[in-house]
Amino acid sequence: MDAFFASIEQRDFPHLRGKPVAVGGSKERGVVAAASYEARKFGVRSAMPSALAYRKCPQIIFTKSRFHVYKDVSFQIRKIFFEYTDLVEPLSLDEAYLDVTENKKNISSAIQIAKEIREKINDTLNLTASAGISYNKFLAKTASDLDKPDGLSIILPDEAEAFLEQLPIEKFYGIGSVTAEKMKKLGIYKGKDLKSWPLTHLNDNFGKTGKFYYYIVRGVDHRIIKPHRERKSIGAERTFSKDIANVELMKTHLLKIADILWERIIKSDKRGKTVTVKIKLHDFVSHTKSKTFEQAVKSKSKLVDEAVKLLDELQPQTFNVRLLGISLSNLQENNNNDDSDESDDLNQQLELW
């Protein structure tokens, strides 16, 4: 989807159309969750501190996130996908892989399917989507970013290697800005430079991901579509309107966050062995502490006790904290449904942003 959250806000509120919009944050504080294309022209992007976004674009309009709306729209989009195939692997609310090799409408052209899906999204939801078409996940994802917004790009099998040789290294999906800078320092600016590196040298410099880089620059990616992606963690966090330096106040908020997290854990019918506490500082630097148990955490009281201990280990009294979070990972199915001792806490409602 094209600038998904921001596009929904512009669709639903006509006064925002054609204007630079940031979802989330304010001119003083917060983080941009999504930016309209009008805002992106000024260098505003998602995950950017909103104060920086305001400096780049003083006329920017900040709007509150409405995640319940975004989730509902995402559900409607996926219903359209399922008209064509059950092999749908969501990456997020606004993006998914579809395998249409065999499809419900027996359409022989993936290009035709992509056109129809984009038209249906536009007609039914008044939103635009961009599609990338190719013979594997990596190339399809790469193609999807070539002609945004409202674009459709195709990378054919006999075009892939030549295309990748000329592609700037920062345009490769899976190579972030930090890795791209490291590659440039090593003389890797385009795909052809990456392709010249032996696998052993890539492994030496980039560890286990070296193998991934070696194959994707050759257009090789054997990953299949996984319609039911395994959830790896469950978390909850809160960003504060003002930095917190008082440890007792942090712990009070931590308890409230634990209430929210435990409700999500109950709904997921999962339990996990690893508890992690995260703090983010005023300068956006994050610190985490984790503990893994032999058995899954079965009660909220144990989750809270461990979260408080981990917070103490982070020595929060030495920081001004802007965000607190707790997550549970190393998940497994819940084999004990007796959570009655926790039920009194499940009605707590907090707004997280």
From TrEMBL:
Coiled coil: none annotated. Keywords: Cytoplasm, DNA damage, DNA repair, DNA replication, DNA-binding, DNA-directed DNA polymerase, Magnesium, Metal-binding, Mutator protein, Nucleotidyltransferase, Transferase. GO terms for biological process: DNA repair; DNA-templated DNA replication; error-prone translesion synthesis; SOS response. It holds the Pfam family IMS_C. Mg(2+) binds at D94. GO terms for cellular component: cytosol. InterPro entries: DNA/RNA_pol_sf, DNA_pol_Y-fam_lit_finger_sf, DNA_pol_Y-fam_little_finger, DNA_polymerase-Y, DNApol_IV, PolY_HhH_motif, Rev_trsase/Diguanyl_cyclase, UmuC. Residues 332-353 are annotated as: Disordered. SUPFAM superfamilies: DNA/RNA polymerases (SSF56672), Lesion bypass DNA polymerase (Y-family), little finger domain (SSF100879). Its EC number is 2.7.7.7. The record marks F5 as: Substrate discrimination. It catalyses: DNA(n) + a 2'-deoxyribonucleoside 5'-triphosphate = DNA(n+1) + diphosphate. It is found in: Cytoplasm. Binds 2 magnesium ions per subunit. It comes from the Bacteria. Residues 1-176 form the UmuC domain. The active site is at E95. One of its GO terms (molecular function) is DNA-directed DNA polymerase activity. Residues 336-345 have a biased composition (Acidic residues). Its cofactor is Mg(2+). Monomer. HAMAP family: DNApol_IV. Belongs to the DNA polymerase type-Y family. This is DNA polymerase IV. The lineage of its organism: Bacteria, Pseudomonadati, Bacteroidota, Cytophagia, Cytophagales.
